Structure formats: C-alpha cells, structure tokens
Amino acid sequence: MTEMPKAGDRFDHVMARLIDERWQDVWDAIPVAVAGDDPEGVHDVRVASRRLRAAMDVASDLFPASWYRPLHKMAKRITSELGEVRDRDVQIEYFTNVRDAAAPGDQPGIDRLIARLTAEREEARQHMLAFLDDLEQTGLQQEVSNRFGQREQSS
Q: With contact defined as beta carbons under 8 Å apart, do 82 and 33 qualify?
C-alpha cells in the first residue's frame, strides 16, 4: 500500500515510491501468470502494468529520459506481450458460455472454435513465457529497485 506523502515530501520522491510499488505489483503478479492455473493471473499482470504506466506517464518529466524512457517502454511492452493470452482467455470464456446455452446441433461447431482458440492461446502463452523469462534474465527488477526503490536515501 502506498505510504501517504508528508508535507514537504518532494514530488519526485513521492512518484519514485509510487512507481517502485507499481513495479512491485507487476513482479508479484507474474508468478500466477506463469503458473497458468488461473486465467486471472495474466489479467492481474496486465492491470498492474497499466497502473504502472499511468504512474509513469505522470512522472515522465521528473527523471532522466536516458534511463526512464526505456523503463516506461518496458512497462508498455509487458501489457502488450500478455495481451494475446488475455484476449484468448476472454474469448474462450465467452464461447464456453455460448456453448452451454446453444442448441445441441450448434455445440460441435462451437467446440471446434473453442479448440482453435485454446491452441492459439497455448501458442501465445509460450511466447508470453519466453518473454517473461527473458525479462527475468535482464536484471530489470534490480534496475527498477536501484532507480526508484532507494530514491530518498540518494537525494
């Protein structure tokens, strides 16, 4: 939970704390998305990354563009890279509900559509997993901590 700013807190410090927390929300949500047991895991990463992007949009003029802009772009990329999996999750859920209410003669066609969407989801999921694995290998989490997590001690 975001600590309430105190009178006299510098805006850049407040935003650094907020951005650090928003990044942490992304990191916290990723293991559920990777596990794949709950379709909401992917959704939660995307929600966390959109909240992160919103905070970073507000603070874009507060930090050096040389390192801030690539971090901001990566926040956007996280949202995008998980989009195909989330889209298929939503479509599969929708057509599963349609199938349950469909006439028996329509169900085989809907089943084929669900099977195709499931295969597309699995392909998108493999791409997502590779992206998230690469993300973990980049040291981004440590860079974020260095840039935002210790802001107050350094100024």
A: yes
Determine the Cα–Cα distance for residues 146 and 155; give it in Å rounded to an integer.
13
Let me know if residue 45 belongs to a domain: yes
Contact 45, 78 (CB under 8 A): yes
In a domain, 109, yes or no: yes
- For the stretch 83-142, pLDDT in tens is 999 999 999 999 999 999 999 999 999 999 999 999 999 999 999 999 999 999 999 999
Task: Indicate the pTM of the whole model.
Answer: 0.86
Residue 6 to residue 133: CA distance in whole angstroms: 38
Q: What is the CATH number of the domain that holds 61?
A: 1.40.20.10
d(CA 82, CA 42): 7
Structural domain count, the chain: 1
| Residue 6 counted as domain residue | no
